[in-house]
Automatic annotation (TrEMBL):
Family that this chain belongs to: Belongs to the binding-protein-dependent transport system permease family.
Record InterPro entries: MetI-like, MetI-like_sf
Keyword field contains Glycoprotein: no
Protein name: ABC transmembrane type-1 domain-containing protein
An example Gene Ontology biological process: transmembrane transport
Transmembrane segments: 17-35, 51-70, 76-98
Alphabetically ordered keywords of this record: Cell membrane, Membrane, Transmembrane, Transmembrane helix, Transport
Pfam hit, one: BPD_transp_1
Location (main, coarse): membrane
Cell compartment(s), UniProt: Cell membrane
Membrane topology according to the record: Multi-pass membrane protein
Domain of life, per lineage: Bacteria
Length: 157
């Protein structure tokens, strides 16, 4: 502790968590919006999100190290993987929770799909995004440990 290694490790892990979590939020929120708004996107992405969300990131530690190396990229990708599905699914749930009468009213007043998305769906979904981001951040912390163990074991062998 006196030599500063603990502080350096905390800063490095925090940086990884913030980058992976931030990318998960930045990617997951728009994907969650698009999955529920555009049918072809839903048909393409929903089967994959429903499949991969149940696979824990720890299962991908070895693959991440083999594919991406023992550097920062593999660690950030694992944290991103954990965060993106939480945000995507909860944002998608927020889009589904938009009051149908608001959508019909906007359409009845002549709003197109883009206007409905920007003026009705997005404002109604915005409260879900920070609510999604909190559990994604909490789940990102345990993700920072297994990659470190795997990378350390890889270097020693």
């Amino acid at each position: 502790m006196a030599d500063g290694t603990l502080g350096d490790s905390v800063i490095a892990s925090s940086r990884r968590i913030l980058i992976g979590w931030g990318l998960g939020v930045v990617v997951g929120a728009p994907v969650g919006l698009l999955i529920r708004q555009i049918r072809i996107v839903r048909q393409l992405l929903e089967p994959y999100t429903e499949f991969f969300r149940f696979i824990p990131p720890v299962a991908f530690v070895t693959l991440a190290v083999v594919w991406l190396g023992i550097g920062e990229t593999s660690k950030v990708v694992l944290i991103f993987y954990m965060a993106v599905f939480i945000v995507t699914l909860n944002t998608s749930a927020g889009v589904m929770a938009v009051d149908e009468s608001k959508l019909r009213a906007a359409a009845g007043l002549g709003a197109g799909r883009g206007q409905i998305l920007r003026r009705v769906v997005l404002p109604s979904t915005v409260p879900y995004i920070p609510t999604d981001a909190r559990p994604a951040m909490g789940n990102s912390f345990p993700c920072a440990a297994p990659d470190r163990v795997a990378c350390t074991a890889q270097v020693r062998s």
